[in-house]
C-alpha cells in the first residue's frame, strides 16, 4: 500500500535526476533495445518502456543495465514489487551501484516498507559523490518517512439494508404467564413487542487521533456517530454517539493503553441508555505475525426515565491474532471474555446478568482490491435473579455470525455488502428471537 505522503513527492520523480542522467549516458547503453527503452523513459513513457523490456526479461535477467532499466520502468509504471526484484539483481552484481540503490529505496517507499526505504536512502546519502540536488531529494524522502507526531484519520459511511427484526423481538403473538394459583394466563402481545421487518437507511462517521508526546507515550482518542432510519417502523429508529480519550505507553513489544469511554444510545429520538466507563488493555506483539491482548472494561449504565435498569458492568478478557502473509494476507483472531452486570437497584437483581462469550473471525484478500471477512460469536448470559413475571431465572444463549466482502473501488473509497444473523435462545419465550440483516455500505476514508 503506498504511503499517504507519496502524493507530496510526485513532483520529484525521477528520484535522482542528476545521477540518473549520468547513469543513462554511459557506454553500457549501446544496444538498440536499451537505447529505445532509455528514450521512452526520457519521454516519461514508463509503461511503454516496461512493455518493451518485459518480453526479454527471461533471457536478459542478470544483465546489470537491462535489470536497472527494467526496475526504473516498473517503478514509474506503478509496479514497485517487480522493480524490487529487478533492482535486487542489479545490487547483487554491483553493490556499489548507488543509483540503483536509490531507485530500490523509492520502490520500497511506494510499497510502504519504511524500514527498508530508510536504510537504502541513508546508504546512498552517505556517499560523497551524490550531487547536492539528489541529496536534497533524498532528504525529502527521509523526512516523509519519519513517523508523524500527530495522526488524524476519519471516515464517512452510508448504507442501505433490510432487517428481518428491527426491534429484536419474539415472533410469538402470545405468551403464557404462570399465576400464583398455579393457573396460566395467556397474554396477547401488542405489535411493538412482536418482530417487525423493515428496510432502513443509515449514515455514520468518525475520527481517530494519536499524538506522540515522546517515543513511548501517546495521547489517543476517537469519536464516532451513526444514525439509522427505518422506512416504516420509525419508533425503532436508533442513533449512537461514542467517544474515548486516553493514553498509550509502548515498551519494546508491549503496549499498554488506558482510556475513558462514553456512549449515548437513542431510540426514537429519545435518550435510551448512557454509558460512561474505562478500558485498560495490555497488548503483546510476540512476533510480526502473532499478537496477544488482555483487557478489562468497566462501564456505568444509566437509563433515563427507567432508573431501575441502571447497572454497573465489568468485563475481563483476552484475545489472540495470527497473520498468514503467504495465504493471501489472511488474518485470524479469537477472544474470550466474561464478567458481571449488576443492577444498582438491589431490589431488582434479575435485571443484571453474568455474560460469558467467545468470538472468532478473520479476513483474507480474494484479489488485490477485494477482502473477504467473516466472524462468529456466542454469548451465554445467566441472570442474577428470578424474573418476577415468569418466576424463573432467565438464561440466554445468543449466537451471531457475519460474512461480507469489501471492494476498494478507488483510493479511500470502498463498497461493502455483508450479511449478519443473530439467534437468541432463551428459557423464557418472550426473550427468544432471530434476526437477519443484509446491507450494502459505501465508505470514504480520509
List the helices and strands and how they pair.
Elements: H1 17-23, H2 32-42, H3 46-53, H4 57-60, H5 64-76, H6 80-93, H7 98-111, H8 114-125, H9 132-145, E1 150-163, E2 174-178, E3 184-188, E4 198-212, E5 217-230, E6 238-251, E7 254-267, E8 270-287, E9 290-302, E10 311-324, E11 330-343, E12 353-367, E13 370-386, E14 393-410, E15 413-426, E16 433-445
Antiparallel strand pairs: 1-4, 1-16, 2-3, 4-5, 5-6, 6-7, 7-8, 8-9, 9-10, 10-11, 11-12, 12-13, 13-14, 14-15, 15-16
Helix pairs in contact: 2-3, 2-5, 3-5, 5-6, 5-7, 6-7, 7-8, 8-9
How would you characterize this protein structure?
- It is a single chain.
- The chain is α+β, with helices and mostly antiparallel strands and 446 residues long.
- 22% of the residues lie in helices and 49% in strands.
- It has nine helices and 16 strands.
- It has helices spanning 17-23, 32-42, 46-53, 57-60, 64-76, 80-93, 98-111, 114-125, 132-145; strands at 150-163, 174-178, 184-188, 198-212, 217-230, 238-251, 254-267, 270-287, 290-302, 311-324, 330-343, 353-367, 370-386, 393-410, 413-426, 433-445.
- A 14-stranded antiparallel barrel has the order 1-4-5-6-7-8-9-10-11-12-13-14-15-16. It has a two-stranded antiparallel sheet with strand order 2-3.
- A hairpin with a 7-residue loop joins strand 5 and strand 6 (238-251).
- It is elongated, with a radius of gyration of 30 Å.
- It starts with 16 loop residues before the first helix and ends with a strand.
- Mean pLDDT is 88; it is low at 1-29.
Amino acid at each position: 500500500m503506498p504511503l499517504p505522503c507519496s502524493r507530496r513527492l510526485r513532483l520529484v520523480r525521477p528520484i535522482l535526476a542528476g545521477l540518473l542522467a549520468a547513469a543513462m549516458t554511459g557506454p553500457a547503453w549501446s544496444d538498440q533495445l536499451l537505447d529505445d527503452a532509455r528514450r521512452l523513459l526520457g519521454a516519461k513513457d514508463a509503461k511503454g518502456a516496461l512493455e518493451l523490456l518485459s518480453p526479454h526479461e527471461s533471457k536478459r535477467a542478470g544483465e546489470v543495465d537491462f535489470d536497472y532499466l527494467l526496475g526504473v520502468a516498473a517503478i514509474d509504471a506503478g509496479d514497485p514489487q517487480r522493480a524490487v526484484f529487478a533492482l535486487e539483481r542489479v545490487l547483487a552484481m554491483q553493490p556499489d551501484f548507488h543509483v540503483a540503490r536509490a531507485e530500490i529505496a523509492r520502490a520500497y517507499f511506494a510499497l510502504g516498507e519504511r524500514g527498508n526505504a530508510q536504510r537504502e536512502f541513508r546508504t546512498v546519502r552517505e556517499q560523497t559523490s551524490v550531487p547536492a540536488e539528489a541529496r536534497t531529494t533524498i532528504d525529502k524522502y527521509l523526512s516523509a518517512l519519519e513517523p508523524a507526531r500527530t495522526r488524524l484519520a476519519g471516515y464517512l459511511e452510508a448504507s442501505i439494508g433490510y432487517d428481518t427484526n428491527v426491534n429484536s423481538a419474539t415472533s410469538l403473538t402470545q405468551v403464557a404467564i404462570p399465576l400464583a394459583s398455579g393457573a396460566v394466563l395467556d397474554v396477547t402481545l401488542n405489535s411493538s413487542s412482536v418482530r417487525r421487518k423493515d428496510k432502513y437507511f443509515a449514515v455514520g462517521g468518525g475520527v481517530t487521533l494519536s499524538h506522540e508526546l515522546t517515543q513511548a507515550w501517546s495521547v489517543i482518542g476517537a469519536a464516532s456517530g451513526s444514525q439509522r432510519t427505518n422506512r416504516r417502523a420509525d419508533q425503532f429508529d436508533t442513533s449512537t454517539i461514542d467517544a474515548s480519550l486516553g493514553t498509550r505507553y509502548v515498551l519494546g513489544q508491549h503496549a499498554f493503553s488506558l482510556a475513558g469511554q462514553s456512549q449515548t444510545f437513542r431510540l426514537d429520538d429519545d435518550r435510551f441508555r448512557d454509558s460512561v466507563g474505562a478500558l485498560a488493555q495490555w497488548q503483546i506483539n510476540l512476533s510480526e505475525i502473532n499478537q496477544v491482548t488482555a483487557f478489562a472494561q468497566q462501564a456505568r449504565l444509566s437509563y433515563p426515565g427507567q432508573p431501575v435498569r441502571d447497572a454497573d458492568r465489568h468485563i475481563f478478557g483476552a484475545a489472540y491474532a495470527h497473520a498468514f502473509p503467504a495465504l493471501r494476507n489472511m488474518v485470524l483472531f479469537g477472544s474470550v471474555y466474561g464478567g458481571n452486570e449488576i443492577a444498582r437497584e438491589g431490589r431488582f437483581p434479575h435485571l443484571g446478568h453474568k455474560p460469558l462469550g467467545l468470538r472468532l473471525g478473520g479476513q483474507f484478500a480474494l484479489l488485490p482490491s477485494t477482502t473477504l471477512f467473516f466472524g462468529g460469536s456466542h454469548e451465554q448470559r445467566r441472570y442474577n435473579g428470578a424474573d418476577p413475571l415468569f418466576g424463573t431465572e432467565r438464561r440466554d444463549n445468543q449466537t451471531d455470525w457475519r460474512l461480507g466482502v469489501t471492494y476498494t473501488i478507488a483510493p479511500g473509497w470502498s463498497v461493502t455488502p455483508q450479511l449478519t444473523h443473530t439467534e437468541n435462545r432463551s428459557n423464557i419465550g418472550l426473550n427468544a428471537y432471530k434476526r437477519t440483516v443484509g446491507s450494502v455500505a459505501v465508505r470514504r476514508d480520509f
